[in-house]
Specification:
By secondary structure, this protein is an alpha/beta fold. It has six helices and seven strands. It has a seven-stranded mixed sheet with strand order 3-2-1-4-5-6-7, sandwiched between helices. Pfam families: Formyl_trans_N. GO terms for molecular function: phosphoribosylglycinamide formyltransferase activity.
Length: about 190
């Protein structure tokens, strides 16, 4: 049975594109019901529109009430009746109003082998720690910061000459593969 997915984005949408490509090729039996961004100018919104996907911007206004914004986000997502919500490069924490409605069916990608290096600077933190292996994770979102149940992970070796940018690019390639895998495996788990 085809699953409806709402994808949350903030940036260019390369994770989104990986999922679109997998769906269009038949590798994943899902439909992206909508793409929602916290950034009005996010290139991912145009990327979605080019594929005929509903694209909605819902920025948090400077000085705006975070809890109100979170409730509005939940309403926007809820209007599309998703079986699964995929946070794919979405750079805002999801609050209680959102998780009350979509907890247990919201996944997120992260550029490290969680529980190591949670937070916004995972790639930098891995390099500063001197690890020789890091990676990518897809996990079930909970109220903590990158603390939810791990669904899939893959390792990425750290090269001696790596910078934050070069390492992050290799991790992003793995993140895209893992997001597709997590959505495909979600279908099996939920069917």
């Amino acid at each position: 049975m085809t699953k409806d997915v709402v994808v949350l984005v903030s940036g260019t949408g390369t994770l989104l594109q990986a999922l679109i490509d997998a769906i269009e090729s038949g590798a994943v039996d899902a439909r992206i019901a909508a793409v929602v961004s916290d950034q009005s100018g996010a290139p991912a919104l145009e990327r979605a529109r080019r594929h005929g996907i509903v694209a909605v911007a819902h920025p948090l206004r400077k000085g705006g009430d975070r809890a109100v914004w979170d409730g509005e986000l939940a309403d926007i997502v809820g209007a599309h009746h998703p079986d699964l919500v995929a946070s794919a490069g979405f750079m805002k924490l999801l609050g209680s109003a959102f998780l009350d409605r979509f907890g247990g069916r919201t996944i997120n990608t992260h550029p490290s082998l969680l529980p190591s290096f949670p937070g916004m600077y995972a790639v930098r933190d891995a390099l500063e720690a001197g690890v020789t292996v890091t990676g990518a994770t897809v996990f079930l979102v909970d109220a903590g910061i990158d603390t939810g149940r791990i669904l899939v992970q893959a390792a990425v070796e750290v090269a001696p000459q790596d910078t934050t940018d070069t390492l992050h690019e290799r991790i992003k390639t793995v993140e895209r593969q893992l997001l597709v895998r997590a959505v495909r495996e979600w279908e099996k788990r939920e069917s």
